[in-house]
Recover the amino acids of this structure.
């Protein structure tokens, strides 16, 4: 039984994680949060106190740490007595935080794949470039490391596993669809860190089809989807973390990721990208200053956290899984719908941060309760999805299923 | 009789000025060129030599100078023996170069209004904020200073003066229309320094109508024009230097400037501006670096000079002047058409640089010949337009007139 949580990061997702940990501190124990900027951690803790999110009396503490410094993170783990680390910092710090967990024996949870600042869209499968290289070491040292335990990747991996286990003998395809039908009222904004957001869409789009990696350009392949609650929406095939682990775990299935985009987003993205403003490679100004254009675009765009108060509408994220059951073709859509305004009222964040921040807390609770304390490195589809859905139902992200038999709760 | 020219600046317009000065060095004498970066001056002189532009044997020399340093410019004027300075550097250096001319007695010519780096779209009339404050001093010291002697401002000011003097007793309105119907084949590029180009369109649009300054937003007022050679084109009311001097000299006329823009330009401009990327005010990146977004956009866009080899099509810039003659309403369109490819073949530059760079050389020749050596500060409409047109006809920018009586050369 592990307890005491250290949250790494102090952005919009970290705010959700902090609130949700506080709401479940009877299970999780002490709550610590650390980032490069102490004041951002303290702002989050103020919000936790203001909303009276702590379920029971307990420790709630902010720390300053440079998460790229593995030894400093390890020291903080030892000082706080945290046995579970939820890393929702920048994807650039995954490996240093993971190393600190391996060093100290703490369980590790993250929500996105590791990235190096100067590299975009490395060769697939992406996990093999960094995280999976530590798989043997985690097993040897019995360190629990759950990779990509946000919504997508994360819950959608569990959706795929559940659909396959419950409804089919053989899986043919997994299409993950992420639609944000909400409105933030700004001219343009990204729903999480613009630097990370744009990096997802500036490289090659990798999908796993017919047993091999396929390459496309962003916005090259679009399709209209008709989804519960949000209705008809156009989504485009995009590169995404979960394609890389699902393809390894279900190599006989086609695995694709589809992200919804409006025409306005595509226009702004296309202008910025075509001019070179989304580049992570530095340019030199006429005055001789070396600048990374993408970092300037980020500085000009609204802080994603600032969108929350006026965000309205809903998200729908789910997996359309097709396969064969008793010789017959079957398909099932496993999904969640979340509401931006509800998220803001509950934890002061918008729905995208909410869907990303609740699942790693569910994973932490499952580790604390022993159900997911795998003592090895796992992607989410390698773990039993049912206890995950049970906790998610309870803490704010209910799972539903739609198929021939109708639309219902996953356990109805 | 003044002679020997010092060109300040080494951009696309300076290249045209250098070639045209060389082609007319029998009139102008020694040719010197100076900018912050010596190698850029030398590249221009290499091009002058390669195209064998020098009419007669003579001095052709490059210098390094910081044009914001008035004393350094004055020293260079004295060292080179230049009696005429053509300032086609950044608009940020106008006042320091003008001061050097006043100090040394050299004649001063520029092609755009003075700007301070951190201020956009100051209060009208713009000339009164900087240049005109030196008018009395120029008169006292008998220094010739010709302001805004490019195409627009410059030739279009002379077009207005000519139309009014020749064809009407009373002027009612002056509409300056600038259409670039050329194509550079790039996704997006500006035809001259992006920093200066965008600054023209990010502030309030000032026009002089009904005897007062009127304010509009950029792209708020558009109109379709049907012009010689380039045909039907949409142009938008924009702020521009010449409106500010013409309004002072013809206060009873409405004075407006119209710039042609395609939908693609407007879309890109709108995206960049809406996000804040055209701002001259610094932002701070997440890493703490202070950066001016506009300078980063500039660094990402193609160098305007690089467009020249593949630029095709024509420009049409002219003045629609309306007034009353013998009690009857009259209107006349005075204009020039220039060709991008012709410009490149002659001087290695695209048409926009060509139209901007030829007129100040014509002005320099008129000073050298004594016809425009006013020994005072003048805007172009305050000088006799006919000798200007005569020189422009000869050196590459013929003036034409279109009215009820047909389309013809200005002196036909």
């Amino acid at each position: 039984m592990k307890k005491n949580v250290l949250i790494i990061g102090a952005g919009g997702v970290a705010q959700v994680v902090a609130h949700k940990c506080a709401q479940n501190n009877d299970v999780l124990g002490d709550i610590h949060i650390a980032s490069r900027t102490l004041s951002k951690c303290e702002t989050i803790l103020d919000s936790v106190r203001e909303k009276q999110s702590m379920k029971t009396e307990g420790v709630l503490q902010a720390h300053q740490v440079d998460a790229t410094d593995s030894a400093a993170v390890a020291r903080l783990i030892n000082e706080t007595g945290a046995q579970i680390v939820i890393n929702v910092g920048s994807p650039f710090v995954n490996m240093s935080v993971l190393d600190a967990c391996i060093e100290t024996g703490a369980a590790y949870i993250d929500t996105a794949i590791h990235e190096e600042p100067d590299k975009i869209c490395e060769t697939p499968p992406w996990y093999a470039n960094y995280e999976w290289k530590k798989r043997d070491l985690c097993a040897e040292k019995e360190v629990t490391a759950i990779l990509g335990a946000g919504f997508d990747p994360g819950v959608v991996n569990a959706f795929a596993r559940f659909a396959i286990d419950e409804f089919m003998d053989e899986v043919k395809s997994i299409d993950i669809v992420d639609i944000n039908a909400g409105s933030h009222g700004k001219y343009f904004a990204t729903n999480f860190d613009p630097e990370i957001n744009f990096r997802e869409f500036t490289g090659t789009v990798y999908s796993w089809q017919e047993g091999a990696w396929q390459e496309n350009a962003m916005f090259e392949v679009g399709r209209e989807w008709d989804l519960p609650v949000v209705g008809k929406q156009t989504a485009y095939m995009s590169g995404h973390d979960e394609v890389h682990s699902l393809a390894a775990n279900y190599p006989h299935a086609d695995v694709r990721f589809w992200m919804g985009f409006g025409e306005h987003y595509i226009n702004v993205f296309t202008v910025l990208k075509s001019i070179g403003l989304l580049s992570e490679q530095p340019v030199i100004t006429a005055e001789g200053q070396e600048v990374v254009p993408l970092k300037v675009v980020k500085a000009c765009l609204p802080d994603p956290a600032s969108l929350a108060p006026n965000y309205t509408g809903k998200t729908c994220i789910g997996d359309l899984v097709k396969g064969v059951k008793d010789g017959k073709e079957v398909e099932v859509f496993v999904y969640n719908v979340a509401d931006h305004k509800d998220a803001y009222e509950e934890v002061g964040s918008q729905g995208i941060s909410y869907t990303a921040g609740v699942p790693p807390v569910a994973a932490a609770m499952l580790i604390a309760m022993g159900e997911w304390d795998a003592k090895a490195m796992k992607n989410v589809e390698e773990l039993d999805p049912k206890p995950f859905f049970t906790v998610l139902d309870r803490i704010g992200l209910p799972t539903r299923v739609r198929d021939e038999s109708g639309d219902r709760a996953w356990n109805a």
